[in-house]
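Hi, here's the filled form for the chain we discussed.

Project: internal
Contact: R.S.
Residues: 79
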Amino acid sequence: MAQEHDITFLKDITVKVTGEVGRAQKLFIEIISLKEGDIIKLDKNVEDYVELYVKDQLFAVGELIVANEKYGIRVVDLA
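And the returned structure, exactly as it came back:
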């Protein structure tokens, strides 16, 4: 039987969580030439999973959702 540990002392620690929708690679000249309204094509489709990182380490994957008129991520699997 697994031993449970009391980790309540960790409850006040703030951790940076980053959701990555996709990536793009551009030349520097393309970046500095961007203007409002331009579109950067990413390497993923809208229905692909979003990756969640904690301190730059993959933590989970999820689905992009809209909740209360804001974007969110529904976790579907822990890494």
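Let me know if anything looks off before we file it.
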